[in-house]
Amino acid sequence: MAGRLQLTLALLKPDVTRVPHVVQAIRNKIIQEDFIVVRHKEVRLQREKTEEFYKEHKGKFFYNRLVTFMASGPTQALILAHEDAIRRWRTLMGPTKVYKTKYEAPDTLRGLYGLTDTRNSTHGSDGEENAVSEIKFFFPEFSCDDWYKLDEEKFRRGEFHLDERNFVHKLL
């Protein structure tokens, strides 16, 4: 990778984390698309934390359904890196509207695994400012600034390996 790496938050939602072979298929796709998995963990969000994460949607018709769903089971949170991570992850996910996506982008993650507009398999940050904020929400111990200062260049040069058991790339 030649250009500066960009970080984004990726979530695998409860509808897919309940199905191990789907999680593995998504992980395989992440690796095939040359994303670097900087951090990875499974979390179970309590309703209050879910409400906090989705606060910008409060008052919208789907808010309660979304919050209830996201608190219903485990979520896998990942920090992904790539030269254009935000756009690339959002392209790989596909459009939010699953019914439409099944026809217009059937090979995307949502086209393949999404069930409804709420149970649409994945989430991704929509811009750099949100990526930093969302990463801090799920990984409060992680500093994007420190990562860029200390690790980004090494990852960009390919000085890492995949720890398959923990599904995270580690520096050599």
From TrEMBL:
It comes from the Eukaryota. SMART domains: NDK. Residues 5-145 form the Nucleoside diphosphate kinase-like domain. Keywords: ATP-binding, Kinase, Magnesium, Metal-binding, Nucleotide-binding, Transferase. It comes from Scylla paramamosain (Mud crab). It catalyses: a 2'-deoxyribonucleoside 5'-diphosphate + ATP = a 2'-deoxyribonucleoside 5'-triphosphate + ADP. It is an enzyme of class 2 (transferase). GO terms for molecular function: ATP binding; metal ion binding; nucleoside diphosphate kinase activity. InterPro entries: NDK-like_dom, NDK-like_dom_sf, NDPk6, Nucleoside_diP_kinase, Nucleoside_diP_kinase_AS. GO terms for biological process: CTP biosynthetic process; GTP biosynthetic process; UTP biosynthetic process. This is Nucleoside diphosphate kinase. The keyword Nucleotide-binding applies. Its cofactor is Mg(2+).
